[in-house]
């Protein structure tokens, strides 16, 4: 895909998004040059699934965008991840939260994290079930080197994005309920949901971050 298409794709999506919704360019498989093109065109956030790939891209782009980790984080990658990323969107256990806290403390950082919700209740997928989110947040909120700042969900993969709507609706309800609890050290601010084929629905359901790959960079293997 030629770079100018990336620019046009980002501009078109941004023109359509309400002003309070931020665009995260889901970068997996794209070259640093392509990702830079997306950032130059106005994508404010970069989402990376792989710590290694992010480290390479970071050399090209640096602080020109906000870096979000959106992959499944393994414990042995946490140290590198907290050094690189501004936000980890995919926390789904107290074990991984504790490791993030410990590694962030080592470098004197307080890192915002989102809780990943398995809103489709798919056994093979990561994320916590909606009814367990509050308990997890209560368990980890007092960790001094992380800050619970939002929720993220994927939802089931389907050709019909309307199938995902109930998952987005439920995630937004959890988001609002937790926000209204006003838990200490918890700031329910960011709601990350919606991808290339579902972001319009996600925005209707209250997302303020949409994570888009294919519509920006083209289809990947
Ligand atoms: C790849 C990916 C996306 C973007 O998916 P597209 O369908 O390509 O827009 C969003 N979120 C996560 C977590 C991803 O891994």
Report on the architecture of this protein:
The chain is of the alpha/beta class and 221 residues long. The protein has one domain (6-217): Alanine racemase (TIM Barrel), CATH 3.20.20. Helices cover 40% and strands 20% of the residues. An eight-stranded parallel β-sheet has the order 7-6-5-4-3-2-1-8. Helix 1 (3-16) packs across helix 2. The longest helix is centred in the C-terminal third of the chain and has 17 residues, at 165-181. It starts with a helix and ends with a helix. 43% of the residues are buried. Pyridoxal-5'-phosphate binds next to strand 8 and helix 9.
List its salient traits.
221 residues; alpha/beta; TIM Barrel; 9 helices; globular; binds pyridoxal-5'-phosphate
Quick take:
With 221 residues, the chain is of the alpha/beta class. It has a single domain, classed as Alpha-Beta Barrel (TIM Barrel), CATH 3.20.20.10. It is built from nine helices and eight strands.
The biggest sheet amounts to: 8 strands, parallel
Strand order of the largest sheet: 7-6-5-4-3-2-1-8
Structural class: alpha/beta
Write out the distinct hetero groups bound to the structure.
pyridoxal-5'-phosphate
| Total of DSSP H or I helical runs spanning 4+ residues | 9
Instruction: Report the average pLDDT across residues.
Output: 96
Range of strand content: 15-25%
Mind telling me the CATH superfamily name?
Answer: Alanine racemase
Q: What's the CATH topology label?
A: TIM Barrel
Computed over alpha carbons, the radius of gyration is 17 Å
Give the end-to-end Cα distance, rounded to a whole number of Å. Answer: 13 Å
The first-level CATH class name: Alpha Beta
Helix percent reads: 40-55%
Instruction: Compute the number of structural domains.
Output: 1
Please give the CATH architecture: Alpha-Beta Barrel
What is the count of β-strands?
Answer: 8
Low-confidence stretches: none
Spell out the helices and strands N to C.
HEHEHEHEHEHEHEHEH
Which word captures the global form? globular
């Amino acid at each position: 895909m030629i770079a100018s298409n990336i620019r046009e794709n980002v501009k078109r999506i941004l023109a359509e998004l309400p002003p309070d919704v931020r665009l995260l360019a889901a970068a997996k498989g794209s070259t640093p040059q392509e990702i830079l093109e997306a950032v130059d065109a106005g994508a404010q956030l970069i989402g990376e699934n792989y710590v290694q790939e992010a480290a390479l891209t970071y050399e090209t782009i640096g602080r020109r965008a906000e870096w979000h980790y959106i992959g499944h984080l393994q414990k042995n990658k946490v140290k590198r991840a907290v050094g690189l990323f501004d936000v980890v969107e995919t926390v789904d256990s107290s074990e991984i939260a504790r490791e993030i806290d410990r590694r962030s403390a080592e470098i004197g950082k307080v890192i915002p994290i989102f809780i990943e919700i398995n809103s489709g209740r798919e056994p093979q997928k990561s994320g916590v079930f909606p009814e367990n989110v509050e308990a997890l947040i209560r368990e980890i909120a007092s960790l001094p080197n992380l800050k619970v700042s939002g929720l993220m969900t994927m939802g089931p993969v389907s050709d019909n994005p309307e199938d995902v709507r109930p998952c987005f609706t439920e995630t937004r309800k959890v988001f609002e309920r937790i926000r209204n609890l006003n838990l200490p050290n918890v700031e329910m601010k960011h709601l990350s949901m919606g991808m290339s084929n579902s972001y319009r629905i996600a925005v209707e359901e209250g997302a303020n971050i949409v994570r888009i790959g294919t519509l920006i960079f083209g289809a990947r293997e």
